[in-house]
């Protein structure tokens, strides 16, 4: 009786393992958008300099208007100017990107992944392979921005003089305890 259940059990375990391996393959394909590191055919390289990369990583998307047109292939540091040099691998079918295009490091959502967003200009000449994008905007550091807001008094201008229109303002130079009703 146990010999009849043995082959069925082995078949079920084997089918489960094949299903698990197939699901891991699907997960790997989904997380890399179908592009593994060795698939680079049909791309050309552009570069851009940034003062702050934020959380940008290699293999991050390069987008125009929300459409992915390439990937970040390499990130280096210029030893002379101490700028970050980002190399972009752009698909060859997008070879008419105007020469006055600007690049910015953006974030998808509040805590999403960082990517390079390109904003095409109106120049009739196109960027050639190997050229550098001249106009760039660094990543915005949200923690630093929130810190500046919190310690600057809630966004109010720190250098502004206090208003004397408030009759209950005790910081006013001509306010006295008698004005507040503390003393008779």
From TrEMBL:
Domain (Mce/MlaD) ranges: 43-121
Molecular function GO terms recorded: phospholipid binding; phospholipid transporter activity
Pfam families recorded: MlaD (PF02470)
Residue ranges, annotated region (Disordered): 156-184
Domain of life of the organism encoding this protein: Bacteria
Identification of the protein by name: Outer membrane lipid asymmetry maintenance protein MlaD
Record organism: Luteimonas deserti
């Amino acid at each position: 009786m146990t010999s009849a259940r043995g082959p069925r059990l082995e078949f079920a375990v084997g089918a489960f393992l094949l299903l698990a391996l197939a699901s891991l393959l699907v997960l790997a394909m989904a997380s890399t958008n179908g592009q593994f590191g060795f698939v680079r055919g049909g791309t050309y390289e552009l570069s851009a300099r940034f003062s702050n990369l934020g959380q940008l990583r290699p293999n991050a998307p390069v987008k125009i208007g929300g459409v992915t047109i390439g990937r970040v292939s390499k990130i280096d540091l210029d030893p002379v100017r101490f700028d970050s040099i980002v190399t972009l691998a752009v698909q060859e079918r997008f070879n008419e990107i105007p020469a006055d295009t600007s690049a910015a490091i953006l974030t998808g959502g509040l805590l999403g992944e960082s990517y390079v967003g390109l904003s095409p200009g109106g120049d009739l000449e196109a960027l050639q392979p190997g050229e550098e994008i001249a106009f760039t905007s660094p990543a915005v550091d949200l923690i630093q921005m929130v810190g500046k807001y919190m310690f600057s008094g809630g966004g109010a201008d720190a250098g502004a003089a206090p208003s004397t229109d408030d009759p209950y303002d005790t910081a006013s130079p001509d306010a006295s305890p008698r004005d507040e009703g503390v003393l008779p």
